[in-house]
Write a structure and sequence with these properties.
By secondary structure, the chain is an alpha+beta fold. The chain has 2 domains: about 10-80, no CATH class; about 85-155, hypothetical protein PF0899 fold (2-Layer Sandwich), CATH 3.30.2320. It is about 55% helix and about 15% strand. The protein has helices at about 5, 15-30, 35-45, 45-60, 65-80, 95-110, 140-160, and strands spanning about 85-90, 115-120, 125-130, 135-140. It has a 4-stranded mixed β-sheet with strand order 2-1-3-4. β3 and β4 (about 135-140) form a beta hairpin. α2 (about 15-30) runs antiparallel to α3 (about 35-45) and α2 (about 15-30) packs antiparallel against α5 (about 65-80). The protein is rod-shaped. About 10% of the residues are buried.
């Protein structure tokens, strides 16, 4: 089954966790009498998932609780297969920042990637990125320190030049 219209709306590991918990709650309520699946979706799921999930369930050939459970189980498994890019930044990201980062990441790496965001206030004007075993730290403080070392070496080399009079 194609779950991409749903998971492409998930940006972070915390959003994935919330959706996974919502899937469990919906499945628990599927077999209860007088359960309205749409109401559970609207109350349990993050708003960005509600519409694509309802559309996907509407396309199912059979609307029985067992078929819906099979679909939701498959969605839960697909969510756990999403690739993760870890990003550590110095500030709490705004919704706009998350949206911009998600757009950039998906443009270059694909729709099946979500971010694991964390904050390290000790980072100065930079970020730490980890993805599929690769790690990169981009940090203004490190850049400044490196530049200062290079300048110090230049100064030391200049001082070592014998002065002739």
């Amino acid at each position: 089954m194609n779950y991409e219209p749903i998971y492409s709306n998930i940006r972070t590991t915390s959003e994935r966790g919330a959706i996974s918990m919502a899937i469990e709650t919906i499945i628990e309520n599927l077999y209860k009498k007088e359960t309205d699946i749409n109401t559970h979706i609207e109350t349990e799921m993050p708003s960005v998932i509600v519409r694509p999930l309802k559309q996907a369930l509407a396309r199912l050939p059979d609307k029985s609780p067992k078929t819906i459970q099979t679909y939701l189980d498959g969605l839960g498994k697909e969510l756990m297969r999403l690739r993760i890019l870890s990003l550590e930044i110095a500030y709490d990201p705004t919704e706009e920042t998350i949206a911009v980062l998600t757009t950039w990441i998906r443009e270059f790496l694909g729709n099946d990637i979500i971010m694991e965001l964390s904050v390290d206030r000790g980072l100065f004007g930079g970020a730490r990125v980890s993805y599929e075993g690769r790690y990169k730290e981009i940090n203004l403080a490190t850049f400044i320190e490196q530049t200062m070392r290079e300048q110090q070496e230049l100064i030391n080399d200049t001082i070592k030049i014998p002065l002739t009079g």
